[in-house]
UniProtKB/TrEMBL annotation:
Residues 2-246 form the ABC transporter domain. Pfam families: ABC_tran. It is found in: Cell membrane. PANTHER family: AMINO ACID IMPORT ATP-BINDING PROTEIN (PTHR43166), L-CYSTINE IMPORT ATP-BINDING PROTEIN TCYN (PTHR43166:SF35). GO terms for molecular function: ATP binding. It comes from the Bacteria. This is Amino acid ABC transporter ATP-binding protein. It is a peripheral membrane protein. Keywords: ATP-binding, Cell membrane, Membrane, Nucleotide-binding, Transport.
Length: 250
């Protein structure tokens, strides 16, 4: 589902991604670990084409992100086409980024109606199903400010799912939450993994990684220094930086 090859990204002199190769099969759950500044968010943003790589490429579902094949050649997509392509990828951020002036229901139906042209009634019915799925049945009419952080993040997940993505990206989805609210959000992410969703999750929740990931990737200084099943990477990391990081967060 995801194929990253030779991905490089710099800001000025600062190399943030220094040749990343990554594969996530359909239904795969990859957890991305690494110290602050190691390039995790930048990698997710390249997968979602919020950043444009300097070299290398990202393929999602057989399409090179930001490009299309035609007549044996690769053409760069126009912004509108990039938006359409990006609609296949759901992203959930640390900050929930809900529209504060819209109800929960309208937050969830906005993009399906505006971007995908789904009839409003149908979008609303789907939204109610999704709210049930994330444990927020009955909160459709609430405004984000009336919800806890954990509830807002679950709305953000429902909103991403409403676009029927092929791939979900999570960037530290529980880092902004009070500790007692972390579990309810991780439970939703776990259910999604069990349902077969392909996903890349940046998190420092090692217990979650151990339980849910099929692959754990450790990023340091813009390079993948460790990658494999959680039992291996989390238990017996070979790389010194990975060992130090794990002993700090465990
Ligand atoms: P992580 O998510 O692992 O903490 P990031 O991908 O956010 O790391 O950032 C990696 C490095 O790239 C950091 O040093 C950060 O300051 C830098 N960086 C990220 N985005 C930008 C940007 N838009 N302009 C300049 N530097 C950036
Ligand atoms: Mg980050």
């Amino acid at each position: 589902m995801v194929r990253v090859r030779g991905l490089r990204k710099s800001y000025g002199q600062h190399t943030v991604l220094d040749g990343i190769d990554l594969d996530v099969p359909e239904g795969g759950v990859t957890v991305l670990l690494g110290p602050s500044g190691s390039g995790k968010s930048t990698l997710l943003r390249c997968v979602n084409h919020l950043e444009r790589p300097d070299a290398g490429f990202v393929e999602v579902g057989g399409e090179i992100v930001g490009h299309r094949h035609e007549g044996g050649r690769l053409h760069e997509l126009r912004p509108r086409a990039v938006t359409r392509q990006r609609a296949r990828i759901g992203m959930v951020f640390q900050q929930f980024n809900l529209f504060p002036h819209l109800t929960v229901l309208d937050n969830i139906t906005e993009a399906p109606v505006a971007v995908r042209g789904i009839p409003r009634k149908q979008a609303a019915a789907t939204a109610l199903d999704l709210l049930r799925r994330v444990g927020l049945e009955g909160r459709a009419a609430a405004y984000p400010r009336q919800l806890s952080g954990g509830q807002q993040q679950r709305v953000a997940i429902a909103r991403a799912l409403a676009m029927e993505p092929q791939l979900m990206l999570f960037d530290e989805p529980t880092s902004a939450l009070d500790p007692e609210l972390v579990g309810e959000v991780l439970a939703v992410v776990r259910d999604l993994a069990v349902s077969g969703m392909t996903m890349i999750v940046v998190t420092h929740e090692i217990g979650f990684a151990r339980e849910v990931a099929d692959t754990v990737v450790f990023l340091d200084g813009g390079r993948i220094v460790e990658s494999g099943p959680p039992g291996t990477v989390l238990t017996a990391p070979r790389h010194e930086r990975a060992r130090a990081f794990l002993s700090a967060v465990l």
